[in-house]
Amino acid sequence: MKVPDLESTVSLDFIRERVAEDVKASKNGGRVHTRFPPEPNGYLHIGHAKSICLNFGVAADYNGLCNLRFDDTNPSKETVEFEESIQRDVRWLGFDWDDRMYYASDYSEQLYQYSVQLIKDGNAYVDSLSADEIREYRGTLTQPGKNSPYRNRSVKENLDLFERMRAGEFEDGTHVLRAKIDMASPNINMRDPVLFRIMNVPHYRQGSKWVIYPMYDYAHPISDAIENITHSLCTLEFEDHRPLYDWCLEKLPVPSRPVQIEFARLNLSYTVLSKRKLLTLVTEGLVNGWDDPRMPTLSGLRRRGYTPEAIRNFCDSIGVAKRDAIVDVAQLEHAIRDDLNKRSQRVMAVLRPLRVVIENYPEGQTEELDAVNNPEDANAGTRKVPFSRVLYIEQEDFRENPPKQFFRLAPGREVRLRYAYFITCTQVVKDAAGNVAELRCTYDPATRGGDSPDGRSPKATLHWVSAAHAVPAEARLYDRLFNEERPDNDSRINPSSLEVVGSCQVEPSLKSAKPGDRFQFERIGYFCVDLDSKPGALVFNRTVTLRDTWAKIEKSLKK
């Protein structure tokens, strides 16, 4: 693999520029070693995908390594289910950590001993203020904090209390270990931050072995140093925490000195990307679990029909920025359309069927017509689609009294049936309530394949399914979970985020479709076979509609 450098004609983002400089200067012996450090307290979402692609991508660009490390230091929120889902999602996205999967909890003894060293050096102390008191003593962004009355405890007393904290002698909240830095620091994160707290909660991996747990800001730099990470890539909310990251590394005899570099996290319009808020959606039953196809989780996107290639392409397209911004969700939808357009087989499906009888077509006759599988892929070939006297078309493709710009089927009007014939509506049959129940039509046998020998060309081409051969299915039409561009805690779920259509009829080639298979329903959108689907009871999720607003925006920007 060719390693990018500063002289390369390829444009590098600011992180890769920094890494290239370090490699050129032989910093860390020219090594590049990154890590992706998720907390196993929820499922990964599209925002995490950006971090995964960046961390694993930078390592790959410079022939380096990337670790998967679980920041499992809060046993009250972490589970095996979340850990396993994270591993599954990272692999699905196309990345592998080989044998480099680590856990912050495995460093508990080292973190404890480093804390003892901080106490001995006068850089840490056991504080007995309550959480509310610590918050009060910390001050504000405009006012300095004040020292805890316990800040000047002797080294001996601090060591004794810290050892007893580890032994489980105290209840939660009675003591914490704090760094002794500067309560008047303009950076509030440097005002004697908490390093260890008591949590009498069993750990999903460690059991009851430990009752004190490190804070992330303490475990993070030391874990990086233990693993010999060279570049610790974090989102912007950790920028103000970097002085503490560096302080920990400076005060302790750690084996390496990684650098922290911050980048803008992904903010997506009409989308919530807070694990806490996503957890609320799940626990309150507002969605059907973490893998609900309306969720921005990787498992939800996967179930909806997104491909890992589309997500990686999306992450590449938005780039790496130094400042937060909101990315239009249409850009993500464009990425999946662009990918599925190249790989998805075209099929015909009718969501809301309207019965059509072709009166001059022979009863009992069936034809096998050739249909193109994918016009974007010359190697995709063709398939046979049955055609018979009775068909289904979409209800919305017929108007008894059509408006001026409606070119589809209407009384006396001729349209083209995809891959089949021209048909003309001759009669409208209604039910007792006056609703259109059936259409009677005639066809032109000379237009087989959708072309006319006399050169006439209808303004509309409709998809259809042979009624005698159609396979019943359910279609789940997913839309955005929120109607607000920037949803918050008070935002309500879009009531139209899911519409279940149980009347769907699909062509017989889909009879053997399996969960995960992806298709383009011609003229409707891209669909994926859902996990709930079973033989004889097909269920399709709409991945995305065919309309691509972002492609139009992108095209206009290039002009």
Short summary:
The chain is an alpha/beta fold.
Describe the protein's architecture and organization.
The protein has about 550 residues and is an alpha/beta fold. It has three domains: about 15-265, Rossmann fold (3-Layer(aba) Sandwich), CATH 3.40.50; about 270-345, Glutamyl-tRNA Synthetase, domain 2 (Orthogonal Bundle); about 345-550, Ribosomal Protein L25, Chain P (Beta Barrel), CATH 2.40.240.10. The chain contains 13 helices and 27 strands. A hairpin with a 5-residue loop joins strand 19 and strand 20 (about 435-445). The chain is elongated. The model has no long low-confidence stretch (mean pLDDT about 95).
Helix content: 25-40%
Number of contiguous helices = 13
CATH superfamily of the largest domain: HUPs
Q: State the domain count.
A: 3
**Approximately what portion of the residues adopt beta-strand conformation?**
15-25%
Rg value: 31 Å
Major sheet summary line: 7 strands, mixed
What's the architecture of the largest domain, going by CATH? Answer: 3-Layer(aba) Sandwich
- CATH topology of the largest domain, what is it called? Rossmann fold
Strand order, sheet with most strands: 12-25-26-27-23-24-13
| CATH domain class of the largest domain | Alpha Beta
Mean pLDDT: 95
State the total count of DSSP E strands: 27
Spans of at least 5 consecutive residues with low confidence: none
